[in-house]
Amino acid sequence: MSEQTAPQNEVVTMPRIGDPAPEFTAMTTQGEINFPSDYAGRWAILFSHPADFTPVCTSEFMTFASMEDEFKAYNTDLIGLSIDGLYSHIAWLRTIKDKMVFRDMKDVEVTFPLVEDITMEVAKKYGMIMPGEDSTKAVRAVFVIDPHGIIRTIIYYPLSLGRNFDELLRVVKALQTADHFDVATPADWRPGERVIVPPAGSCGVAKDRMEGAEQGVECVDWFFCTKDISEEQVEAAIRAS
Ligand code: BEZ
Description:
The chain is an alpha+beta fold. It is built from seven helices and 14 strands.
């Protein structure tokens, strides 16, 4: 984890991809959680939002809640966080259910935990406060954490920009596919598209690949080789049984 000195001489931590997810115990709208140990064996998306009762955040929570079952289908749990207290969280989630309409969503119940972080303890541990953007609100951070508690993807958005939830689901599927098949995924990859095989580690393997010796592997050049994994194979491997 890197340490940086903030303008006020306060030391803040910025977790990095590949680091263990910083541990915390916190109260949420679903009771106390111990993170990441309560999520061992599952994937988790820990995400922050700037504040309760704000419009972009409301649209995001309605979207996340509407997609919760889709994330669960890929063994992925959602955990939200903002620098607000528990009663604010409860009141906001009740308002979302009772009054809010966004696109075709209404009567949306948020059943995943929303962490209260009024002390900013967790937000600071995860580098969710970016003083140049706002010193008292978390930016829109997304941490994708694997079943071993390791941070696998970090995405940050500013306060004014709502997240792309198709992308977040694509990230989960791509990470799980990469792990299961020992491959990488190219730009804009979606399940069913060709995947990248690990780079040749020797001149011999590079030569074999270019001569078509590895069945199903097609190379544009020795360092750019792909293979087919059908959408059905991907889904069978990564969907929760
Ligand atoms: C919003 O969610 O709408 C929002 C929150 C903080 C600053 C700007 C917008």
